[in-house]
Amino acid sequence: MQTEKIIGKRKVKTVYSYKEINNLLILTQKLREGKPFYKKGVYKFKTFEENQICALKAMTGQNIQEFQQ
Questions:
Q1: pLDDT digits (tens, 9 = 90+) for 12-67
Q2: Can you give the residue range of the structural domain that contains 58?
Q3: Which of 15, 28, 30, 57 lies in disulfide reach of 62, CB 3.0 to 4.6 Å?
Q4: How crowded is residue 69: how many other Cβ atoms within 10 Å of its Cβ?
């Protein structure tokens, strides 16, 4: 049986308060100007890559109307 060797310490994850998370959400809403990430509708894609491009455009606020059918 092998024994494990521990070197250094594991970093503890930072715990954020609800107030900090709420401030981030408020900032996100202000930057998005109340627009949702995806507009309502049906989206059809021929390839996975096309889906990823559309998702990236939606997250960055670019027009995704060409994919809507």
A1: 777 788 898 889 888 888 887 767 666 666 778 889 888 888 888 777 766 655 55
A2: 36-69
A3: 57
A4: 7
Q: Distances in Å between the alpha carbon of 15 and those of 10, 25, 47?
A: 15, 16, 39
Tell me how many domains the chain contains: 1
Nearest to 58 by CA among 21, 30, 22, 68: 68
Cα separation of 56 and 35, whole Å?
A: 15
pTM of the prediction?
0.37
User: Considering only CA atoms, which of 61, 55, 57, 56 is closest in space to residue 28?
Assistant: 61
Is the alpha carbon torsion for 38, 66, 55, 32 positive or negative?
Answer: negative
Q: What are phi and psi of 68, to 5 degrees?
A: -80, 135
